[in-house]
Design goal:
This protein is an alpha+beta fold and 187 residues long. It has two domains: 3-44, no CATH class; 46-185, Nucleoside Triphosphate Pyrophosphohydrolase (Alpha-Beta Complex). The protein is 22% helix and 43% strand. The strands form three sheets. Strands 4, 5, 8, 9, 10, 11 and 12 form a seven-stranded mixed β-sheet that branches. Strands 1-2-3 form a three-stranded antiparallel β-sheet, with no helix packed on it. Strand 1 (10-19) and strand 2 form a beta hairpin. The longest helix has 18 residues, at 168-185. It is elongated. It starts with 9 loop residues before the first strand and ends with a helix.
């Protein structure tokens, strides 16, 4: 059986839809491929961007932030939500300005890692994740008030980063970068 041969479920009706700026909560009655009726709850969110920021062979991280969902401070690449109908590269520039104090003239290159986006799909998260590499101008002095950590872009730095980085989305983007580093960045 191929994916296109898989039986589809039917949406019978939507009995709840609650919208906020951050997410939409949806409750639906579905019928599965066996004719069984199910109550199904899901959350839709705006798509996300994770930005691997590099300057002079170092990964650059903003200050770690407290994450209420996991109850701890975490190291994360710059990132955020992509509002609907907004060019992704514009959002990347806004995120870098907010999280690292970088303006668009200080970005030498913005390279999309996955232009089609990856589906993040479960009942509690329906969105796409877009990864980017941004190379900062080598002569731009980053404001130390924004910088949380740096890691060398070499085998030892990447191995340490993979030990320290707990965010699954950040790790996915980093691993994609590692798999494609030569062809994407020309290094």
């Amino acid at each position: 059986m191929t994916f296109s041969d898989s039986p589809f479920w039917k949406t019978l009706n939507r009995f709840v839809e609650m919208r906020s700026p951050w997410l939409t909560l949806i409750g639906e009655h579905l019928e599965d491929h066996h004719g069984k009726r199910l109550d199904y709850w899901r959350i839709e969110k705006a798509d996300s961007a994770v930005i691997v920021t590099i300057q002079q062979d170092f990964f650059i991280f903003p200050k770690p932030l407290y994450r209420p969902g996991v109850g701890e401070v975490t190291l994360d690449f710059p990132g955020g939500r992509i509002p609907p109908d907004t060019p992704r590269e514009n959002v990347v520039r806004e995120i870098l300005h907010r999280e690292l104090g970088v303006d668009e003239t200080q970005c030498d290159r913005i390279i999309p890692l996955n232009p089609q986006g990856w589906s993040i799909n479960s009942s509690f998260s329906n969105q796409k994740l877009y990864g980017f590499i941004v190379e900062l101008a080598p002569n731009f002095n980053l404001d130390s008030d924004f910088i949380g950590a740096t890691y060398p872009v070499d085998t030892q730095g990447i191995c340490q980063l993979l030990q320290d980085l707990t965010c699954l989305q950040c790790r996915a983007v980093l691993l994609e970068l590692i798999n494609n580093y030569q062809s994407l960045c020309g290094f």
